[in-house]
Amino acid sequence: MGVRSGLLVKTPLEPWIYNKISGRVGMAGQITRQMIESYQLHHLKTTLALAAERSPYYRRLLTGLALDKIGSLKDLRNIPFTTAADIKANSMGMLCVSQSEISRVVTLSSSGTTGRPKRVFFTTTDQELTRDFFRCGMSTLVQPGDRVLILLPGKAPGGVGRLLAEGLQRMGVHAVPHGIVQDVRKTLEVMERERINALVGIPTQVLALARYGPPAQNNYGLSVKNMLLSTDYLPRAIIAAIEKAWNCRVYNHYGMTEMGLGGGIECQARSGLHLREADLYFEIINPDSGENLPDGEEGELVFTTLTRQGMPLIRYRTGDLASFIPNPCSCGTVLKRLTRVKDRIEGRVPLGGGGYLSMSMLDEALFAVDGVINFKAAIAAANGPDRLSIEVQLADWAGREVLDQISKSILSISEIAKNVHQGYLTLAPVQVDRSAVLWPPTKRCIQEPSLT
Ligand SMILES: [Zn+2]
Predict the structure, then answer these.
(1) pTM reported for the whole predicted model
(2) Would you say 167 and 228 are in contact if contact means Cβ atoms under 8 Å apart?
(3) Is pLDDT at 452 greater than 50 in this prediction?
(4) Which residues have their alpha-adjacent CB atom under 5 A from ion ligand 1?
């Protein structure tokens, strides 16, 4: 087990990163920021050289830049960004290996209506780094002998669920790959039958499990101790609801396919994400000017891969908003801490009477209502005030009183109340979907159908 600082175990990512940097299995505490940063600088230069030599896309982009003059991490700021649109248009041109060396291609269909899908390529070595990150990260919350249900897609070789299961098996944890939840009752039966005591899933899916029975009724006599919820944004209201229903601890993982699936995970302090700093170099930038922001200021998260072979990404703009937390984590690590990602830049919808509405505001208000398991939101501009429509998916037992609470909760968002009061916004009656099949998890955002 890791080194204790007070009552908290230090993040296992620290000795893991120390080991990757030094090549030695060492005690936590021997690592310094300076060691991490000189390792990152070395690998940044290697990545830039690899991309300039092997990738036709990056060769063009990096031509004329004095890559050999890069002497500090700050010098990276002179290198252009890579965007999601760049990947869509040039994914093949970003490859640094021959196609025969690619073992996994992930195709991400865009949520919008236009454009090509994003394709991200990985070699066997790239995938092994992810498996190893999952093994290390999961040791924050599970131990040998635990029985972990994996409610993630990708049970096939190379898929996220499979890589996680393989990582867990390496540490003597019994992994039960399940896939996405469709029928809540059936999944709860699997949990009971398999004597599951930890799980990894997507927030709204696990919320649906936790809210299957009426409040205060114990679901199936489960004894889940710890769980990891993996997503771009994890609402506090969902954490509170699940922890209350199951008397367990919720940890947050943040990652995206472009990062190699894994990006960062909370330690036992659960107050910010520690990052996969040996494989990824993170920056926070002002999304408008592109300038780097100091720790503590919120901006767009940007990362550069340090060890990726198949398709390195240089200064990739995630579109996610977060900040680095300036003061050290109470677990005592020297690793950086990222706030939970709050919103997508494109996910903030401006309101006519001032301010904006985002999915995270709606999430906190609506998921706080017991009985809500998911919802969709849309804002349409007609020839008058904007109209906000919300469709909710409710637990079976939820009655009329839950709908009343939802309406109150929507108006508890001050931006909504103000705009409704001033006549800039109207609220459509809340629609309810009571189908037994859960909505498939997708990137959650406010739809803007007729804002053209
Ligand atoms: Zn920590």
Answers:
(1) 0.92
(2) no
(3) no
(4) 11, 267, 269, 329, 331
